[in-house]
Design goal:
Elements: E1 6-11, H1 15-18, H2 20-25, H3 30-39, E2 45-50, H4 60-64, E3 68-72, H5 82-94, E4 97-101, H6 108-114, E5 121-133, E6 147-157, E7 167-174, E8 179-188, E9 191-196, H7 209-222
Parallel strand pairs: 1-2, 1-3, 3-4, 4-9
Antiparallel strand pairs: 5-6, 5-7, 7-8, 8-9
Length: 261
């Protein structure tokens, strides 16, 4: 029997504590609503973590026990400790999946993994968004249909300063005329990454059935197969080379010396 995919949903849990409207829409916190959406009808093992917990809830043990990390951020990107970011990056390179939601395009882990500013244009006007499926055969778009709409949302528009995606799953059109690459994938190291745009906190977007379906599909797509690639820099002694060789010429490092990083 295959083991359950282990998912950790990370949320800032800031707006829910400081904004009455957000608290009304997400009384249990956005992270819990997202977790419920992912767990719905799947039987996945889903837990949550927040900014306010020790080590932001992302201890080495938690991340080692996580196949897919779902990240929602907006107002507190700068408050995430760098040592936790390094921990997240190491796990992605090893094979942990990462799903970045809405303003997590500006989160420290996502920007580090992209290597760009990840800037974009935006407008908060409660306008309609239509998300077009670019690749109906992609696992993330399974059972979604040719498009779906969100009646009120925040606009994100191009240019979106990201490296060229491996795949574009969704493109959004907004009532004001802008378009945006709203569902993109990459691979970094052994880990799969999916950025999904919808999720502004003052709208009940994470209750939408299509958004919830995309989240579940994305988790299954991003989950590793359990094989962990460890990033290291071992020295291979000449005597252990696949073919016999004679050591010659000048050498910077002694036989048996450990890594130089």
């Amino acid at each position: 029997m295959p083991r359950k995919i282990r998912v950790t949903v990370w949320g800032e849990n800031v707006h829910e504590r400081t904004n009455e409207l957000v608290r009304h829409i997400y009384p249990q916190g956005m992270h819990n609503t997202i977790a419920e959406a992912i767990a719905e009808k799947t039987g996945l093992h889903v837990r949550t973590a927040t900014l306010q917990q020790p080590q932001h809830g992302l201890t080495r043990r938690v991340l080692d026990d996580t196949d897919v990390l779902v990240w929602w951020g907006h107002a507190a990107h700068g408050k995430v400790r760098d040592r936790v970011v390094e921990r997240v990056l190491a796990r992605v390179w090893e094979g942990m999946g990462l799903i970045a939601l809405h303003s997590a395009h500006y989160s420290k882990p996502f920007k580090r993994l992209m290597g760009t500013t990840c800037s974009l244009t935006w407008r908060e006007a409660g306008e309609k968004e239509r998300l077009w499926v670019c690749n109906p055969a992609h696992p993330i778009a399974r059972n979604v249909g040719p498009y779906f709409e969100l009646p009120s949302t925040e606009m994100y528009g191009e240019p979106f300063a990201i490296p060229a995606p491996d795949e574009i799953v969704f493109i959004s059109w907004f009532q004001g005329g802008e378009v945006f690459r709203s569902g993109c994938t990459w691979k970094r190291g052994n880990g799969k990454i999916f950025y999904f745009r919808p999720g502004h906190e003052v709208y009940p977007i994470y209750y939408d059935k299509n958004v919830r379906r995309v989240l579940r599909n994305a988790v299954h797509w991003a989950a590793s197969d359990g094989v962990r690639w460890i990033d290291s820099c071992p020295q291979v002694p000449a005597r252990k080379a696949p073919e016999p060789l004679q050591v010659k010429g000048p050498r910077m490092h002694k036989e048996g010396q450990k890594g130089f990083r």
